[in-house]
Write a structure and sequence with these properties.
Elements (H helix, E strand, L loop, with lengths): L2 H13 L3 H10 L11 H14 L8 H15 L4 H10 L7 H13 L3 H11 L7 H10 L3 H8 L3 H14 L7 H4 L15 H15 L7 H21 L5 H12 L3 H14 L2 H10 L9 H9 L33 E4 L2 H11 L5 E8 L11 E7 L4 E5 H10 L5 H11 L4 E4 L2 H11 L6 H4 L3 E3 H5 L22 H10 L19 H23 L10 H4 L11 H6 L30 E4 L4 H9 L3 E4 L7 H10 L2 E4 L3 H5 L8 E3 L6 H12 L14
Parallel strand pairs: 1-4, 2-5, 5-6, 7-8, 7-9, 9-10
Antiparallel strand pairs: 2-3, 3-4
Length: 693
């Protein structure tokens, strides 16, 4: 609205004897304000609302105000949503007679204006005096679940009543037509959006949003568990991709002592096994004998308590002979460490938090099978070149809390993810970090602070699906790989064995198969990264990995400028040798002409930028081995600029302080600033373009 118009509106109010009555008269005689958007009527109304704040004597009271309130209520059903709040404020409708307000809303409801009735009820906070089922049913039939959520948002008792109503409707024996019949002529009625499946999803959404105990909704919870049960039987007996141990863990966890689910389990067992097999599983899952069919009960009597549960079917998932068809972690078992104490974990930190380190990061949690809440991380895997650390997060968090140091874990993870001198490799990092935040609340904003990360999920979308050197079809391996397993197959030649993926990762002790699976999941990221750095063009990636590989995330891009203001005190690119040095150890200033470097072949963009500033730069060609950089550095007295895994090889081949790790997630300009700052190179105007480009 123009300033001139605002001033004219305010002068008009000042001339009126009763501005509140004047506004109503204008709105009643005009249809302009009924449209969507910011009409002239809307502008005048909001200006009056602001004007009243500076003229406290204007608001009416007593009989005169009541008459104005009655007139306003008559207009509200036709009123655009953006005018409700200003009118309610101007005419003080919160002070109006509550019975009068309820009667008006009831009139709207009886006219079939269900949305308007609910919206006005929310604005005037009338919900505690209304029937939640009656108000919300037509809204759900019109697919207005968001309005229903808003209607109960501030009232825990109404939330519980609504959830109990929805759960009653989800009972398989309940006839949903009993609900829909009175609303057959309802406008905008969407019957396809009103069924048990949709209502069940809404229940779970409300349970999570309002943090209500799921026990309040037994029908929905049982049906979700039944779907989980059917899924587990499919994975075990049809797809044959779940081990007996994993399957048994999840079956017992899903069924528990729920008698109804135990009955469903017995029926499923009889469909997939003979009576003897069903009896063995019934024994293992502690199903009461009285719930079993006679044939199964008779078999159960023959079994001895000490009997080991045998395979229900003879169809084994994967024979040991097929293991050679899957990716195998190349380090020995003794270099895979399962950490449950902080004393052990500190030794892990010292190795992981080294400048120039490259770390494969993965996480595991117990499958939720669609239940309420985000999964909590049970295992954090950190893979280095020579060893893998598996951190038992529940145990470490419990120990830290007992010692009064709750923030211990979050501090370590924040240091790791925010350090630009450490390259973190992951696959689908957003999902992992979301679960990590649910496990450790101080980490909820971690994704905004991430630096020096490589999300291989983004790379996966760019890598050409080249056939591996050896055809897996010839070896009889299923060709249904996906996700990280498929990327491992494309880049390293063999897929991951995902048999343990759906394990119960909260159960202790972990089985040996789980430990090897978890270590492999993190370590394969190192091997993929190294292979792609060495030969990017073979996989359809550009030779400049700054653009095609490094620094991309699976979801939200980082706001680099904002992050640069919040960087940790340590330099963004650390000297790649030994412990971190204090700022006091900064070298004496030098000019670009005195500074000679050799850039690794993934930093060609940085090399060209430094040359523009007058630095003496040698660039490795795309086909050059990284070790050639060390050879040139020794012969010509140059500093090596590199990034990622090649640093591991190069740092030991040159003197201290002669190898520098650059943050590959930054663009060439930011990388150059890191280098110049670290080596205290002072660039003057005459240095720019002083060398042949």
């Amino acid at each position: 609205v123009s300033r001139q118009l605002k001033e004219e509106i305010r002068r008009g109010f000042a001339r009126l004897e009763d501005p509140l009555a004047g506004l109503l008269a204008m709105l009643e005689s005009s249809s302009d304000w009924k449209g969507k958007g910011h009409s002239l009527g809307y502008c005048i109304t909001t200006e009056l609302q602001l004007w009243i704040k500076t003229h406290p004597a204007v608001p009416q009271s007593g009989t005169k105000l009541k008459k104005l309130q009655t007139r306003v209520l008559g207009m509200l059903s036709q009123c655009p949503t953006n005018l409700l709040d200003p009118l309610i404020s101007i005419y003080q409708l919160h002070t109006a007679d509550r019975n009068c307000l309820l009667e008006h809303v009831s009139h709207l409801y009886l006219q079939g204006n269900y949305k308007e009735a609910a919206t006005l009820s929310i604005k005037l906070k009338l919900q505690p005096d209304q029937d939640v089922e009656k108000m919300c049913t037509p809204l759900l039939l019109q697919d207005k679940a968001n309005l229903v959520e808003d209607y109960v948002a501030e009232y825990p008792e109404l939330q519980r009543k609504l959830l109990q109503t929805l759960d009653k409707w989800c009972d398989p024996s309940f006839n949903i037509r009993d609900i829909t019949r009175p609303y057959q002529g309802l406008s905008r009625y969407k019957p396809e959006k009103f069924n048990r499946r949709v209502l069940s999803k809404l229940v779970f959404r409300l349970l999570e949003r309002f943090n209500v105990d799921p026990a309040l909704c037994p029908n929905v919870i049982n049906q979700r568990h039944l779907r989980t049960l059917n899924y587990l039987f499919y994975k075990r007996f049809v797809e044959k991709t779940m081990t007996e141990e994993n399957w048994a863990d999840h079956i017992q966890s899903t069924v528990g002592e729920n008698r109804w689910l135990q009955g469903q389990l017995v029926q499923s067992l009889l469909r997939h096994c003979d009576a003897c097999g069903a009896a063995r599983w019934a024994q293992r899952c502690q199903v009461p004998p009285e719930m079993l069919p006679q044939a199964v009960a008779e078999e159960l009597q023959k079994l001895h308590i000490q009997d080991r549960v045998e395979e229900v079917t003879k169809a084994d998932n994967y024979e040991a002979s097929k293991k050679k068809d899957y990716y195998q972690i190349p380090i020995s078992r003794e270099n895979i460490h399962f950490l449950q104490t902080w004393e052990e974990t500190r030794q892990c930190w010292e190795k992981v938090l080294q400048p120039g380190q490259v770390v494969g990061v993965d996480m595991e949690w117990k499958p939720s099978f669609g239940m309420v809440g985000k999964p909590r991380v049970a295992l954090l895997q950190l893979a280095l070149k020579d060893e893998v650390f598996l951190l038992d997060l529940p145990q470490l968090l419990k120990q830290a809390e007992a010692e009064g140091e709750k923030e211990k874990l979050s501090r370590f993870i924040q240091m790791l993810y925010s350090d630009t001198a450490i390259t973190k490799l992951g696959y689908g990092m957003s999902g992992d970090l979301s679960s990590l935040a649910a496990t450790c609340s101080p980490l909820k904003d971690m994704e905004k602070q991430m630096q020096g990360v490589v999300d291989l999920l983004a790379v996966d979308k760019q890598v050409d699906g080249l056939s591996p050197e050896h055809s897996h079809e010839e070896r009889g391996v299923r060709q249904s790989e996906k996700g990280l397993s498929l990327l491992v197959q494309h880049v390293l030649g063999k897929p991951l064995d995902k048999t343990e993926q759906l394990s119960n990762w909260e159960k202790r002790p972990l089985r040996e198969e789980q430990i090897l699976y978890a270590a492999s999941d993190a370590y394969c990221l190192l091997e993929i990264y190294e292979r792609l750095c060495k030969d990017p063009e073979s996989f359809g990636l550009g030779s400049d990995l700054t653009d095609s590989l490094v620094g991309r995330q699976s979801k939200k891009p980082r706001a680099k400028k904002q992050l640069n203001k919040q960087e940790a005190p340590s330099p963004s690119g650390q000297e790649c040798q030994g412990p971190r040095t204090e700022p006091s150890g900064r070298p004496a200033p030098i000019s670009p002409r005195e500074f000679s470097v050799v850039c690794d072949n993934m930093l060609q963009g940085l090399g060209r930028y430094l040359r523009c500033l007058g630095v003496d730069v040698r660039l490795l060609d795309n086909e050059d081995d990284h070790r050639k950089a060390a050879e040139i550095a020794r012969q010509e007295g140059r500093v090596i600029l590199t990034s990622g895994l090649p640093y591991q090889t190069l740092r030991s081949q040159v003197g201290e302080g002669r190898c520098f790790s650059v943050n590959c997630s930054e663009k060439a300009k930011e990388q150059a600033l890191q280098v110049l700052k670290h080596f205290n190179v002072q660039v003057s105007l005459r240095d720019i373009f002083s060398r042949c480009q």
